């Protein structure tokens, strides 16, 4: 098992859970079986992150572009999602987890939205990890939506154009109440962002694992954290400045 320091884990961990389909294909199974197995990994990783007291865990579960997949797969994914939210509620309560969803919820089927709203309301006063599922989520859509809302507020006279800066812009995003991710894990060997948290990932440490999501486990998570802890997050400064506390400018 890879060793890591429990006191310097990412405050906010984001994950692009990829490779369910390829995992299934490799074993001559239907893609949906890969998604089912992927749900078990979600359970395991949520449990482990909550135990490790990670404050924010954000999982990319369904992208705005995933609606373009074959209808049968989309339908099966929605059914799995509904089952997941319902079956996890008890575990979220016993683990003190707060549930949250980002993305264009108006595109989700009404019954799933009802399950989501119920889970958000039920877990609202929990004080442990904030578990966020990104559903029907696209980073560009989120940024365009924020620009639209800002334009409306300017037109209504609520804010002045000169007041728009990074901080105000951030307040119009789904993630307004969250810190930016410190660490992003993408599984399955793909090295791209696929329209996930484009604004928020500006200074996030990226990590790509070759393991498909259904095979991602505690050992792989620990390995990722071990890597995270070897990174130097400079945020534009020099290494010397960080190590000696040299002043800026
Ligand atoms: C990730 O696995 C799950 C979703 C995107 C919903 P994929 O379904 O993308 O699996 P691959 O990439 O085809 O292997
Ligand atoms: C990204 O995976 C979205 C999720 C993991 C939910 P995709 O499998 O949809 O991404 P691409 O199409 O390979 O970039
Ligand atoms: Mg994929």
From TrEMBL:
One of its GO terms (cellular component) is cytosol. Pfam families: Prenyltransf. This is Isoprenyl transferase. Belongs to the UPP synthase family. GO terms for biological process: polyprenol biosynthetic process. The keyword Metal-binding applies. The active site is at residues 18, 66. The keyword Transmembrane does not apply. Homodimer. Gene3D superfamilies: Decaprenyl diphosphate synthase-like (3.40.1180.10). Its EC number is 2.5.1.-. One of its GO terms (molecular function) is magnesium ion binding. Keywords: Magnesium, Metal-binding, Transferase. The gene is ispU. Binds 2 magnesium ions per subunit. Substrate binds at residues 19-23, 31, 35, 63-65, 67, 69, 186, 192-194. Catalyzes the condensation of isopentenyl diphosphate (IPP) with allylic pyrophosphates generating different type of terpenoids. SUPFAM superfamilies: Undecaprenyl diphosphate synthase (SSF64005). CDD domains: Cis_IPPS (cd00475). Mg(2+) binds at residues 18, 205. Its cofactor is Mg(2+).
